[in-house]
Specification:
The complex is a heterotrimer of chains A (about 550), B (about 350) and C (about 200).
Chain A (H helix, E strand, L loop, with lengths): L1 H12 L19 E3 L6 E4 L8 E3 L6 E2 L4 E5 L7 E2 L4 E10 L7 E9 L20 H10 L12 H4 L10 E6 L8 H8 L1 H15 L3 E7 L3 H15 L8 E6 L8 H9 L14 E5 H13 L5 E7 L7 E6 L4 H7 L8 E5 L6 E3 L12 E6 H7 L11 H5 L6 H9 L3 H6 L10 H5 L6 H61 L4 H17 L19 H10 L1
Parallel strand pairs in A: 1-14, 9-10, 9-12, 10-11, 13-17
Antiparallel strand pairs in A: 2-8, 3-5, 4-7, 5-6, 7-8, 13-14, 15-16, 15-17
Chain B lengths: L14 H11 L1 H36 L11 H11 L7 H13 L15 H12 L1 H4 L2 E2 L14 H10 L12 E2 L2 H10 L4 H8 L3 H6 L11 H13 L6 H20 L7 H6 L3 H8 L10 H21 L6 H10 L1 H7 L8
Antiparallel strand pairs in B: 1-2
Chain C lengths: L1 H27 L6 H9 L13 H9 L12 H12 L14 E5 L9 H5 L5 E2 L7 E2 L19 E5 L15 H17 L1
Antiparallel strand pairs in C: 1-4, 2-3
Helix pairs in contact in C: 2-3, 2-4
Classes of the chains: A alpha/beta (about 550), B mainly alpha (about 350), C mainly alpha (about 200).
């Protein structure tokens, strides 16, 4: 009793509002990271990050090396894709990706030659502290580093030294609050040194004054390992005193960037702003390790740690998997061969997505692959009952929304109202659905609402653009008509003048002639505007030529 | 099963669990009611609960819906709550009428569980109070309080009373009833007797009121039993502290302030706290999730509103007790409260 | 009697007073153009397809505003647009008879195109590029799928294709639960007994 009271007081001192304590089921916490075998075929979607898709720069039949860039980024929010092994490009075609829609993306298929010859074009930068941050930043972009916590936002964009927003604190996210997932946990135990060097690189890049490694209290061995490594490194490493390891009580969704920032700094990221605007940046431990590899070893991101777990996996574990490895192959190495009555999840059970089948590749966002029995999935997705307005969803909401009202609005298609109730501030953590006694799929309603709002916005933009184009066209047609009428007037005046000069000719036929001109003009298709497109104002057609031609005929 | 959005885990909470935990929290009050009013209370509760369940079943069927929600315990809870707010003796058909009203008018006509504007049990009780004011304010003298006129532990006597009325026992209704403390001070005040004198003439004792040895509705006499249930629900997070705390605190503060100004007119705060249905309303009626606000801020506003209304109706209104009117009135304001009392969203 | 007179006089004075105020307000706050037609036009999808029987979105909006057209004639806008217009006009919603097809785009089979530019002139949103005797092509991002270009083509080389769905534009459907389905059913029933 006293213990729980103390614990709750301790929690109230350093926490975010809301949150839940789900069953953690970290059954793979003690399983050392194994290395996956080579599959027969790697499948690399051209977009594995948030942002614009890449463009393949290899063609079928090309031989590629391990780490060679095979698709280049297009646009700013984009990072390239690299080959996970040496081998031959066998085809480039659309293939399903780990996405809830089950839709595909153009993907590059690589058949390994088994030699794993590395591409050595990127030189290691050992003396990173003497290197300009912009150069390091470009290196991270070239190496395809994106946030490995699951959001896969291109990392180089965040690591910007900006004097308007000086970075005070670097937060290293080792929270891993999702149940089942242990990939960050194992990485902290096995690659503590690399992670800390990665931190030092980031601190050098953004000029951060201090760094906090945040770890939840259900991973005491990771915490110890990080502290020990810091101590060992402190001899050769003067800056290690600015790195602090911080233990936090276990609570979901503490690993969410904004919530973690609130816990550690007491500040909230204002709506519509980024963490860097309050002097904080947040990086996942896996990303830190990848940054280390990219700078110190000159290796692009071609592999990541994946937790393979769930109650349907015979031998759950953690595995270092090369990107592009088919998930079926990964599951097979953990003893799961048939997928009858098994549901596959990409990511953790709280925020991960259900996969249609196992024939999708591991991508940069794959932090976990879970296989759950149908029965346990059914337990989680019971049929929806009416809301009894108990308010538990609002209590656990980490961003203090009123989820039950929002869900009603989304269900009844009152999307504008839902937006005014801050629908877009929802982080889709799933805490509300988790506690709902009526089993309402609240997050699903929010996703539906967000999607519909986005669709409405796109349609409105398109309608607006179409309207403008249509108006431009109407204006142009009207203008051309006017110009022609003006030309005709000029010609007619000349004509009349001529007639007056002649005087002798009869007036009647002349009049008929002008009427003919008019009808001919209306009937004849305008030939001058054929090439005019878009908003381009029509080049004024040379009046003299066209009209004189007509008149002379 | 094509598109299943995350999360793929659930905490295991359910409507049935919520309802059952409220019913469990009402156990102490129920036991006290049977202890005080014997078989009369038992029969009342049974009739009410059974009628509620049957009405729910029939109305669900009439609407062509599945009758499975009957198992969620909400109708049973409504029946129990309704019974606990009724006086020990009511003609049997009134009990049935009230139960049918509670489910039909209070709940199903709004669209069933989750859609009702008012607390069904309270709505039915208010309908009954307005329709049959005499019966609804005739409080049977409980056992263990003074000398009982009829033995409420005698099953046959109770059954007779319930079915054939007090005449069957050769008693007038007046002879087996007494005034509740709230009713007593109200009538005395109307005759020009001060509250202090009225309490003295009633032989009022705070301890008796706390333990429940006084006249009143069967479930609301014992503040202790209700408090136990309330604490249980608070501990289980079935309800949050916002409504009961602010409700009771508002009544206490208002009563204390006015009692200090004029003790002859305004009853003391503790009297208000322990009297009538305040405790039952604060812990079980006002906290009914469906008809109360969802946001913490809204719940505080709701609680304060209930408190102000309760005290005002008790002090200035025509009825001696105002708690259920207060809750019903505040129920109307819930959509408005919910709209304006939303919490500040992260980062805004 | 005096009461009656004073009351009548007082009310008469009030009426006159407010009539004057209204008359002045009507002059001072007069809005040029037809704001209702503009508001309706802003609700229309601007495909300029003419499926409503009017030569574009603006004429249709004007016709609805002046009561010449019904609110349910915009096919691509579908039920949502109809409801919005009905709401704006304060009239009962009507069912949209023609079901809108999936979003389409025009596609010119370039090897068959003779470069006549007829389709370019037909396109209401200038979404086809090309020059005389040159292949024409459709700018897919700008095509509204109105099909107005199909008919003028002398060699029938324009196809209407279903607009490809983009992964980025995919959105979650309404949850497949009984309660969500019930909401859709009730909405359908509501629409059927109001029309």
């Amino acid at each position: 009793m006293l213990h729980t009271l103390l614990k709750s007081i301790q929690k109230s001192t350093r926490t975010f509002s809301g949150g839940i304590d789900p069953e953690m089921s970290k059954i793979t916490a003690a399983a050392a990271i194994a290395t996956s075998m080579q599959p027969q075929l790697y499948i690399l979607p051209i977009k594995q990050h948030i942002g614009e898709a890449c463009e393949p720069i290899v063609s079928v039949g090309d031989h590629v090396k391990w780490g060679q860039k095979i698709a280049r980024s297009q646009g700013y929010v984009s990072v390239p894709v690299h080959s996970p092994t040496s081998g031959k490009v066998v085809k480039i075609e659309e293939h399903a990706t780990p996405h809830p829609s089950g839709m595909g993306l153009p993907s590059i298929f690589i058949e390994p030659d088994g030699k794993d010859t590395r591409d050595k074009s990127l030189k290691p930068i050992k003396a990173y502290r003497d290197t300009d941050p912009t150069e390091l930043r470009e290196r991270l972009r070239l190496c395809g580093i994106a946030g490995l916590g699951g959001a896969v936002f291109p990392t180089f964009i965040k690591l910007l030294k900006d004097n308007r927003n000086p970075i005070e604190t670097l937060i290293l996210n080792g929270i891993e609050c999702e149940p089942y997932l242990t990939n960050d946990h194992r990485l902290m135990i096995e690659k503590a040194k690399e992670i800390i060097i990665g931190i030092d690189i980031i601190m050098h890049m953004v000029g951060a004054k201090k760094a906090i490694i945040a770890i939840e209290d259900n991973k005491p061995n990771a915490l110890e390992m990080m502290q020990e490594t810091l101590e060992i490194l402190s001899e050769s490493f003067p800056d290690s005193t600015r790195i602090e390891v911080c233990q936090l009580p276990t609570r979901y969704p503490q690993g969410s960037e904004k919530q973690l920032i609130e816990v550690l700094t007491g500040k909230q990221v204002p709506a519509g702003k980024l963490p860097m605007h309050i002097g904080v940046i947040c990086q996942n431990v896996g990303t830190s390790k990848a940054i280390h590899d990219a700078i110190i070893k000159g290796r692009p991101l071609t592999e990541r740690i994946v937790t393979v777990s769930g109650d349907a996996v015979p031998r759950p574990g953690n595995m270092r998997v090369r990107l592009g490895t088919p998930m079926r192959f990964v599951f097979a190495q953990h003893g799961l061969e048939t997928f009858d009555h098994v549901h596959l999840l990409h990511g953790g059970p709280m925020m991960g997505e259900k996969l249609k089948n196992a024939d999708v590749p591991v991508v940069k966002s794959t932090n976990g692959l879970l296989a759950m029995h149908s029965t346990s999935m059914k337990e989680a997705h019971k049929s929806e009952q009416p809301c009894i307005r108990c308010g538990h969803c609002g209590v656990v909401c980490p961003v203090s929304l009123v989820p039950n009202l929002l869900a009603d609005q989304c269900r009844n298609k009152q999307f504008e109202k839902a937006e005014s109730y801050d629908l877009f501030d929802c982080i889709e953590c799933g805490a509300c659905s988790y506690v709902c006694p009526s089993n309402i799929p609240l997050v699903h309603y929010f996703r539906y609402g967000k999607g519909q709002l986005a669709q409405i916005g796109r349609e409105q933009n398109f309608a607006h653009a179409s309207k403008q184009r249509s108006e431009h066209r109407d204006d142009r047609i009207a203008r051309e008509k006017e110009e022609k009428a003006a030309k005709r007037r000029v010609v007619r005046e000349k004509h009349v003048a001529k007639a007056d000069d002649d005087k002798t000719s009869a007036g009647k036929p002349d009049h008929d002639k002008t009427a003919d001109h008019k009808t001919a003009d209306e009937k004849k298709p305008k030939t001058t505007d054929k090439t005019i497109q878009k908003d381009k104002p029509s080049p004024k057609s040379p009046p003299g030529k066209a009209s004189s031609g007509k008149v002379s005929s | 099963m094509i598109h299943l959005s995350s999360p793929h885990m659930h905490g295991g909470d359910s409507i049935r669990m919520t309802m059952l935990s409220v019913i469990f929290a009402l156990l102490p009050a129920t036991i006290v009611s049977v202890y005080l009013f014997g078989w009369l209370a038992f029969l009342l509760i049974t009739i009410s609960m059974v009628t509620c369940l049957i009405t729910e079943f029939i109305s669900l069927r009439l609407m062509g819906r599945s009758a499975s929600p009957i198992g969620d315990g909400s109708a049973a809870l409504t029946g129990l709550l309704l019974a606990l707010t009724l006086p020990a003796y009511l003609p049997w058909w009134m009990v049935i009428l009230a139960s049918v009203m509670a489910i039909l008018l209070g709940k199903q006509l709004y669209g069933g569980l989750g859609y009702n504007l008012f607390n069904p049990a309270l709505a039915a009780r208010v309908i009954l109070l307005i329709s049959f004011p005499l019966n609804m304010t005739a409080w049977i003298i409980p056992m263990h309080v003074g000398t009982p006129v009829i033995d409420l532990y005698d099953f046959n006597a109770c059954l007779n009373l319930l079915i054939f009325g007090p005449e069957s026992l050769n008693r007038a209704l007046d002879a087996i009833t007494m005034a509740s403390p709230l009713g007593h001070i109200k009538t005395e005040w109307s005759q020009g007797i001060s509250v202090t004198n009225a309490l003295r003439s009633y032989d009022y004792s705070y301890l008796d009121a706390f333990l429940g040895r006084e006249a009143g509705s069967i479930g609301e006499t014992s503040a202790l039993a209700l408090l136990l249930g309330g604490i249980y629900m608070l501990a289980r997070h079935t309800i949050s502290w916002h409504i009961p705390f602010t409700y009771l605190a508002t009544v206490l503060i208002l009563a204390a302030v006015f009692n200090l100004i004029d003790p002859a007119h305004y009853a003391p705060p503790l009297f208000h706290l322990l009297a009538g249905g305040l405790m039952l309303c604060a812990f079980f009626m006002a906290t009914d999730p469906v008809s109360s606000p969802v946001t913490p801020m809204g719940q505080i506003v709701f609680g304060v509103g209930c408190g102000v209304l309760t005290w005002s109706i008790r002090t200035y209104g025509g009825y001696p007790e105002g708690a259920m009117f207060a809750v019903i009135l505040m129920n109307c304001t819930v959509p408005l409260i919910d709209h304006y009392c939303r919490p500040r969203v992260y980062g805004r | 009697m005096t009461y009656l007179l004073t009351t009548t006089a007082a009310f008469g004075a009030f009426t006159l007073f407010f009539a004057v105020i209204l008359a002045i307000a009507g002059r001072v706050f007069k809005i040029e153009g037809n704001p209702i037609a503009d508001n309706i036009e802003s609700l229309l999808p601007q495909t300029q397809c003419g499926q409503c029987g009017f030569p574009g979105c603006k004429p249709y909006a004007g016709a609805v505003a002046s009561g010449e057209a019904e609110v349910n004639q915009c096919v691509p806008g579908g039920e949502r647009t109809m409801l919005q217009i009905a709401d704006l006009m304060g009239v009962e919603p009507k069912t949209v008879e023609d079901e809108a097809t999936a979003p389409m785009i025009a596609f010119v089979r370039e090897d068959e195109c003779i470069g006549c530019t007829l389709c370019i002139k037909a396109c209401p949103v200038d979404a086809i590029v090309g020059a005389p005797k040159q292949y024409h092509t459709v700018i897919t991002e700008h095509c509204t799928g109105c099909t107005l270009c199909v008919e003028p083509c002398p060699v029938d080389c324009i196809d209407m294709l279903i607009k490809p769905e983009l992964l980025e534009h995919w959105s979650w459907p309404l949850p497949d639960t009984h309660r969500a389905q019930l909401a859709i059913e009730r909405k359908g029933q509501h629409a059927s007994h109001t029309s």
